[in-house]
Specification:
- By secondary structure, this protein is an alpha+beta fold.
- The protein has helices spanning 3-6, 10-25, 45-60, 81-90, 99-112, 115-126, 243-254, 281-287, 300-322, 334-358, 376-387, 394-405; strands spanning 132-135, 151-155, 158-165, 176-182, 192-198, 207-212, 221-232, 290-291, 294-295.
- It has 3 domains: 3-98 and 105-130, Orthogonal Bundle (Butyryl-Coa Dehydrogenase, subunit A, domain 1); 133-254, Butyryl-CoA Dehydrogenase, subunit A, domain 2, CATH 2.40.110.10; 281-405, Butyryl-CoA Dehydrogenase, subunit A, domain 3 (Up-down Bundle), CATH 1.20.140.10.
- It has 12 helices and 9 strands.
- Helix 9 (300-322) packs antiparallel against helix 10 (334-358).
- The N and C termini lie far apart (50 Å).
Length: 412
């Protein structure tokens, strides 16, 4: 019996048994194309269709939206989503593609949307009928998010939106966007409002999506331009001028610190065979990497570095468990807020060590028949820099921890 099972409530124990039974019986067809390493790298329709079908099946089985009210398309359970997440990961299932919808849009709509809007949007979000993206960052508003300049002007009972968003993951597939914008230019914070807006139906008319090609050759990021996009006032979340407060709900859940734990990923990696990104996979990589007539696994320095990575990874995983036990944290936000910071750097250091283990072979990339593990580790290393930037740069995250958790003076 796992540690998690020992601490399960009766409802969680019953639900865990159900999840294990369903997952053991549910076998998927192999993907028709190579899957990316995470949802934000999905490029092709074939990739999205395969993953979208998986999320729909998981939702139909009750493994998605478990803790949301039934009226909103959820399961009406209590603290059961984390159980489904754990069991999907143990079963090695693919990640869920609607990562931004599940992790950010859904909790924000739940806490700030009108009942009719929740009933309209959330079931289709959970089932992956609608893909969501996040419209926060702009060319002049990244770390200083409150500086966004995308503007909405009232026109009767509608709003006309003009502006430019950047680093918008999945916008090339998205049906809807959560959008932080300005409705009053005279106040930096109180002039912000928060909308949900349809974008796919407006492509080529009022919305333009331009892909941004990364160093990896992938195009998961995009720029989005709004040219007189008209939306109903029904799509305003909370009150006018409350955008900054609503955005805090989004950011808390983006950093896994919010009260609604939603799944961003079923398995740790899309490639169940290679398990790239996991420190334990470095052991197999070292055994398969030639080094001076032996293997990298025979090098005591490499062995020490691998064990250090495993210890860091396990330490972070066990630390995250503490966050779910009342009284074990000196500050309720410390562990949730530090998780993104720590795990993103572990992934980056893990991938860097994989490059060291592969040696000269680390210069071989996807598609090269001689590339170790199909060239997935060099891809993971390059993608890891996006992870340390996303959801707020790690430098900003350290400021948040220092100021809000440790009570240090605000940095200049």
């Amino acid at each position: 019996m796992s540690v998690e099972q020992k601490k399960d409530s009766p409802e969680q124990a019953e639900f865990r048994a159900y999840c294990q039974d369903w997952l053991s019986q549910h076998q998927q067809e192999p993907p028709p194309v190579r899957l990316p390493q995470s949802a934000i790298e999905i490029m092709h329709t074939e990739q999205m269709d395969y993953l979208r079908n998986w999320q729909r099946e998981a939702y139909d089985a009750g493994l998605i939206g478990c803790d949301y009210p039934v009226a909103e398309g959820g399961g009406g359970r209590t603290d059961c989503q984390i159980v489904a997440n754990q069991e999907m990961q143990r079963a090695g299932k693919p990640f869920l593609p609607n990562i931004l919808g599940l992790g950010m849009a859904a909790p924000t709509i739940h806490f700030h949307g009108k009942p009719a809007l929740k009933e309209q949007l959330l079931p289709r979000l959970f089932s992956c009928e609608d893909i969501w993206c996040q419209g926060f960052s702009e060319p002049g508003a990244g770390s200083d998010l409150a500086n966004v300049q995308t503007f909405a002007e009232r026109k009767g009972d509608r709003w006309v939106i003009n502006g430019h968003k950047v680093w918008t993951s999945l916008a090339h597939f998205a049906d809807w966007m959560i959008l932080l914008l300005r409705t009053d230019k005279s106040s930096k914070y109180d002039g912000l409002s928060y909308f949900v807006v349809p974008i796919k139906s407006e492509l080529g008319k009022s919305v333009e999506v331009r892909p941004l090609i990364k160093i990896t050759g992938e195009t998961g990021f995009n720029e989005v331009f709004f040219d007189n996009l008209e939306v109903s006032e029904d799509y305003l979340l909370d009150e006018l001028g409350k955008g900054w407060q609503v955005a805090q709900t989004t950011l808390l859940h983006e950093r896994s610190a919010g009260p609604l734990v939603t799944p961003s990923s079923g398995g740790a990696t899309s490639n169940q065979q290679t398990n790239v990104g996991n420190a334990y996979a470095l052991m197999d990589l070292a055994r398969q990497s030639p080094r001076h007539g032996a293997t990298a696994a025979d090098d005591p320095v490499i062995r020490d570095k691998i064990m250090e990575m495993i210890i860091r990874q396990e330490g972070s995983r066990q630390g995250a468990r503490r966050a779910r036990v009342a009284g074990l944290c000196d500050h309720p936000m410390r562990i949730p807020l530090q998780s993104k910071l720590v795990m993103s750097e572990i992934r980056q250091d893990c991938s860097a060590l994989a490059m060291e283990i592969e040696g000269a072979a680390s210069s071989l990339y996807l598609g090269d028949a001689h590339a170790p593990v199909g060239g997935e580790w060099p891809l993971s290393y390059m993608n890891s820099y996006g992870v340390t930037i996303a959801a707020g740069t790690n430098e900003i995250q350290r400021n948040i921890l220092g100021e809000r958790v440790l009570g240090l003076a605000k940095s200049k």
